[in-house]
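User: Fold this, then the next.

Assistant: Folding the first:
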Amino acid sequence: MKQSVLILALLLAATAIQAASTEWHPGLSYAARNRFKDMEELERQSLEADSLFVERRRARALFDSIPSMRKSPTPVNLIHAPRVLKQYRSVRKPGFRMYFPDEFIAQRVWSELAECAGIANHDRDLALILRQYAEVSGMPAHSVVPDSLMRYVTDADLPPRDSLTVAFGDITPAWLSEAMTAYSNQRDFIFTMMMENPANVEYAYWKLPVPPTLPEEDFSFRGLFSKYRPDVNVGDAVITEAEIEKVNWLHNFNISLQLSQAYISKNWYQGGNDYLAILGNFLWDVQLNTVYHPKMMFQSTLSYKLALNSQRDDLYHKYSVSQDLFQYNLKTGYKASHNWYYTFLAQFKTQMLNSYPANSMTRTAAFLSPGELNLGLGMTYTKETGKKNLKIGISISPLSYNLKTCIDSMVDETTLGIEEGHRIKNEIGSNSEVNLFWRIWDNITYTTRLFLFTDYKTFLGDWENTLNFQFNRFFSTQLYMHLRYDSGSDPAVAPRWNRWMMKEILSVGLSYTFSTKG
C-alpha cells in the first residue's frame, strides 16, 4: 500500500515538472523566452493563413464543379475576395425569354417579303435569317433551320448581317458580356455560400468604416488661389483683450475745395452777392465712442465755410465774400433711458472777414458782427439703423439762452435784430434742434439740420440742407441750401422775401475725408 502511494506521488511530481518546463522553459533567458513566444505567434498566423487559403481553394473548386456556371476568365476572381455581406437579395435575376421567331416580327417579315419578292426569294431570305440567328445564339443551324430550307443555307454563303431584313444579337461586345456574366455568377455563388452558412460571413458592410473620398475639385479662381494660400492656425491668431487698443474717440475730418455757384437774397442777414467762385469747406467732428461708453454722449463739431468770388464791376473791391461762416457745436449728456439723454447744448457762430455789398463801402458784416451764442438744457433722442445708413437726433431745450453781438462800429446793429446803440442782445427762451443723416446710396448722402429758438417775443429759425455726390475718394459735387427766418429782421430791405432769407450753393470740386471707426 505504501509503495502504491509513493509511486502515485512520483508520477504527480513528474507531471507538474513537465508542465512547468513546457510553460516557462526553465534554463532559458527572458529574451529567448520572448523569441520563442514570437515564433509561436507566427506559427499560429501561418496556420490561419493556410486555413484561409485552403478554404478559398475549396470554394474555387466547388464553383468550377458547377456545370451551369460560366467560367470565363476575369482579371479578378471574386471567389478569393473577403466575404462581405452587403444586403439580402435574390440570386435569380429577372430576364426576358428569347423565342425566335417572335410572332409579331415573323408576321411583319412574311408580309414584307411576300409583297416585294416571290416565294423562292422569300424562302431563301427566311433561311438566311434563321442561319444568322443560329450563328448569334451559338446553336447548330439544323436545330433552327427547317429541313425544307436547308438547301438555301448550304448552297449560298452567309451574307453580311447588315444586309438582312432582320438582325439579331446584342450591341454589347462578347468579351464584355461574358465578363459581366462571370462576375455576376461569382457574386451569386459567394452570396449563396454566406446564406447557407452564416459562418462564411467575414464582414458586415454596415460595420465597415466609411471609405475615404477625394475632396471635390474647385476650378474657380478662389479654389486655385486657395492651393497657394499659406495655412494659418486660427488658435495662434487669438488676440487677448489686453492687446486690443480701445478707440474712445471717433474722428471725422473733411476738407474740400470746390467751384461753386450761389444765389443770395437781397435781405440775407449777413449780406453778400450772387457769385460763381471758389468755395472751401473744413469740418472736424469728434464723438465719444458709445461702444465703450454706452451711457455717455459727447459730440464736438468745428466747421468753417468760406466762399470768395471776384468782382470785376465793383468800383471799391476786387473780391467779395459770399459765404463766411465759422461754427462750433457742442453736445454732451448722460443717458436717461433707452435712446433718451439729459443733454447740454452749445452753439457759436460768426464770420472772420468783412462783407460789403457791390459798389458800396457800407460794411454789412464782420468778425463777431454778427456773433451768436446759444446755450440750452434739455433732452435729446437719438436713433440709428443697424447699418448706420440713417441717423436722427432730436433735441429739446425748455431752458435756453441766446446771445447776439455786434462789436464792429461800422456795422448797423439794427439789421441784426439788436437795438440801436447797443452791441449785444440777451434772450432767454427755448430752443429745439433736429439733425438727420441719410445715406441714400453708397456715394450719395443727405444731411439736414433744423434749429429753432424763441424768447416768446421773437422767433428765429435756421434750416440747412446738404446733398453730397461723392464720385470717388477725391471728387465730389455738393448742393447746399440754407433757409432762415428771423422775426426781428426788417422786411423793408427785401419786400418780396419779407423776413425769409435763402442761400443756395452748387459746387463741384475736390474733396478728401478721413474718419476713424470704433
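Now the next one, as you asked:
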Amino acid sequence: MKIKVVVLIAFALQLVFAQTTVGLKDVYSSKFKFGNILNGNTVNNNTMKQLVLREFNSITPENELKPDATIVQNGSTNTNVKVQLGSGAKAILQFCQDNNIPVRGHTLVWHSQTPGWFFRENFNASGAVVSTAVMDQRMESYIKNMFELITTSYPRLNLYAYDVVNEASSESGGPRTAGSDAGNGQSMWVQVYKDNSFIEKAFTYARKYAPKTTKLFYNDYNEYISAKRNYIANSIVKPLKEKGLLDGMGMQSHLDVRTGSNPYPTASDYGAAITTYKNLGVEIHVSELDATIDNGNESYFSAQATYYKNIMTEILNKGGSAVTAVVIWGIRDDQSWRSSRKPLVFDANGNKKAAYNELVKLIPESDWGKTGSSSSVAVSSSSSKASSSSTAASSSSRASSSSVASSSSIRSSSSVNVASSSSGASSSSSTGTISSSSIAVSSSSNITESSSSSEEALSSSSSEEDTTPILGFGLSTQGSQLITYYSLKGEPLGNAKPQKAGIYIVKQGYSVKKIVVR
C-alpha cells in the first residue's frame, strides 16, 4: 500500500503533542523524578499506561516485588532461597525497560507480606523458629537471588533505587514487638534476632549484590512523628550512612487532609522531618505520597489541593537537592489502597483534580522540561521492542480536557483548527506557535491512498529511516529530552524506534519531526 501524508497534519499534531504530552515529570524535571505505581491490573490497561507515559518517569511495583510474591517455598534451602517474578512483575518490568522508565524496587525485608514459613525450620509453617545464623543465610540468599533475577531478566532496566528494609520502627521509636501477628505490627524478624540488628545485615547484603547504580533506601511511614523520626534518623539512617551501606531515606508520606482545618501532619511538621533526614546527608524519596479526605467528600477537594501545595512547598524548600524522587501511591482515586477517601491527584475517571493543578502551579513554566541531574533518563538502543510498549490511546482520554495542559504552556500567536476525527484533538481553536495564519486540517486530507509519483512508498523489508523536520517550536528545548514516538493518530508508542515500516512522529523536547521507517 502506498500512502501520501499531507504535511499539514504534522503541524496540527505538533500542537496536539504540546498540549497532551506535558506531565508532572516534565513540570518537575529540574527538581526530581516524579513517579507513580503500577500493579498487575493497571499495567495491562492501555489507558493507564498512556497516562503513565505522559505523566511519570519513575515506577514502583505496588505489591509485585514484595516477599510474599517472590519467595518460593518449594525447593528452597537455607543457602539457596528460590525466587520468582509473577506475571504482574514481569509485565511491569518489561514495560519500564521498553520505555526507559526508572524503577524503584519495593521491598526486600519487611515484617508484613512475608510468609511465616520463611522464618521456620524446613520452610514449614509448623516448624520451630530458626536461629539467627540460619536466618542470615536465608536473608543473604534471598537478596542475592532477587537482584540476580531482576538484572539478568531485564538487563536494560534502570533499577535506580530499592527499599531494602521497610517499616522496621515502632510508632514510639525502637524495634517492633516480636511475634507472628504482622497485622498488629508484630515482626518475625525481631522474633528471630531479638532486636533490629537484622537491618544492618540486610543493607550489607544489598550493598554486596545490588547493581552499583541502584541506591539503597530505608522506607517507613509516620516518619514525621518526633519519637519515630528521631529513632529512624539516629539509630537506622545515620549509622548505616556512615558505614556506606545506605543511600537514602524513603518518606512514605501517607497523609490525611481530613476536612482541611486539621490535616495530619501539618505541613510544617512534615517539613521538619525533611530537614532532619536532609541533615544526615542522605537522599530523600517521598516514596508513597497520598493525602486522604474525610469520607471521600468531594467538597474537600479544594482543601486537599491546598494541602498538596503546602506539602510540596515543604518538599521543595526544605528538601532542595536532597529530594531526588517523589512518588504518588496510585494513579486514580478508585485504584488507591485508600480509595474511599480519594487521596490522589486524578479522580476515578482519570481527570486531573485541583490538587494536580496546584502542583503544576508551583513550578515556573520556564523551568518545565529542564533536566536536573536527579531526573535524567537514559534512552535505550534502537533494539528495544516497540511492540511490547505500544499503547492504544482511548478516544475519551485524548479528547478529555483533563489530559490537556493549559494553553498557557504554549507561547503562541496563531490558531490551528484540527478535525477531531483525524487527530483525536478537539476541533475548537487552540493556540500554538505555528505560523502567522490559521491552518485548517480536514479529516479527509490527512492520509490519502494514491499512486502518485510523489508518494512515499513503504516497504516492510527495509529498516531505512527518512527524517523530515516538521516544526521548530519557539520554546527552545524546554520539553523533556526523552525521545518519544507516536503514531499519526497521536498514540504514544514508547521510547524505542518502531521496527515496523510506516510513518511516525518523533518528539524530543518541543522539537517534533516526521520519520518514515522503510
